[in-house]
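## retry 2 of 3
previous attempt timed out at serialization; input unchanged, resubmitting
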Amino acid sequence: MSVYRSEKEFLHAFKRFNTLSSKKYAWLTGVSEKEHQCAFGHPIEPESLYFKKPLDLEGERKIRVCKSCMDTLVFLAVDSDTHAKSISEQLYKQHNPPV
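## retry succeeded, writing output
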């Protein structure tokens, strides 16, 4: 069950969460071609949205996380604490200035 009221709200929080990593090692989205295992033990079914984070520059090693776990991870990292939410918002605005 999502802790965010909408996909738009989650995507903004995910972008703020991603500012905590360097761009080389940012979390990416993908659609699975085959079944994978989430880093937290859940199955990632074929043709499902999932999130992956490279662990090396070549992209050979990566962590995969299902949508449900990423939803919880983002909430715990940047939205469950008002200070963390504020800092992640400031970082997001620094990395993505308005055009």
